[in-house]
Write a structure and sequence with these properties.
Layout (H helix, E strand, L loop, with lengths): L4 E4 L6 E5 L6 E6 L5 E6 L3 E6 L5 E6 L5 E6 L5 E6 L3 E6 L5 E6 L5 E6 L5 E6 L4 E5 L3 H7 L3 H12 L3 H4 L1 E3 L12 E3 L3 H4 L14 H11 L6 H12 L1
Antiparallel strand pairs: 1-2, 3-4, 4-5, 5-6, 7-8, 8-9, 9-10, 11-12, 12-13, 14-15
């Protein structure tokens, strides 16, 4: 191929634009839900985003280690999913181009992708003869893929008081308002003091896991170095 994307008038067949930038064949295409952006995947291992009206290249998404073979936009247009011959699915922030997470599990190339209409599940088809379903933004999913494992472990231990000796938890008659059913008082140590913010985040409609996610977001405890750096820079503004 000539490594380009060409846009055509569907009614007349007239060529409108040629999008040049890829350095290998183009193997996947997807329009954003609002029709304003085109995503293209290529044998050059990148996903490129183009302004559909002007043909201008907006961003290059790099991270895959083999050819990009499938693309899909989330229904709200905020996330792009890309599948690759490296056997993974990667999720990207459509606005910034930042990598969000990598979904590993397939043992052969990922050849097809689709979001559920509500955007909560991603289906991936592969050369390993399986279709896998992934929860795209569930709380558990985020704890596994988004955040530093050590930070997740520490926060979960704190919320559930699973290691009472380590956290020096003692019974008291007037428990914290956030978890009145626990009946525990926490003695502040250097380790537990770091997690004090969790007790300042009461929300009656929020699960404990949701609370942990909010805490980790506020603490910029992201697994991805770029995402962590962007979060910390935003906090300093």
């Amino acid at each position: 191929g000539d490594n380009t994307v060409r846009l055509w008038d569907a009614a007349t067949g007239t060529e409108l634009k040629t999008l040049s930038g890829h350095t290998a064949y183009v193997s996947a295409l997807a329009y954003s839900p609002d029709g304003k952006v085109i995503a293209s995947g290529s044998g050059d291992k990148t996903v490129r985003l183009w302004d559909a009206a002007t043909g201008q290249e907006l961003k290059t998404l790099s991270g895959h280690t083999a050819d990009v073979s499938a693309l899909a936009y989330s229904p709200d247009g905020k996330v792009i999913a890309s599948g690759s011959l490296d056997n993974t699915v990667r999720l990207w922030d459509a606005a910034t181009g930042q990598g969000l997470k990598t979904l590993s599990g397939h043992t052969e190339r990922v050849s097809a992708l689709a979001y559920s209409p509500d955007g909560k599940v991603i289906a991936s088809g592969s050369g390993d003869n399986t279709v896998r379903l992934w929860e795209s933004n569930s709380t558990v999913f985020r704890l596994i893929y988004d955040f530093d494992p050590k930070a997740v472990s520490a926060a979960l231990r704190f919320v559930w008081e699973m290691e009472q000796d380590e956290l020096q938890i003692k019974q008291q008659p007037h428990p914290p308002a956030l978890f009145p059913e626990l009946g525990y008082h926490i003695t502040w140590t250097d380790e537990t003091r770091k997690l004090r913010l969790l007790l300042d985040m009461p929300n009656p409609d929020e699960t404990k896991l949701g609370q942990v996610v909010r805490f980790l977001e506020a603490d910029c405890a992201y697994k991805d170095p770029e995402q962590k750096a962007a979060c910390e820079a935003k906090k300093k503004q």
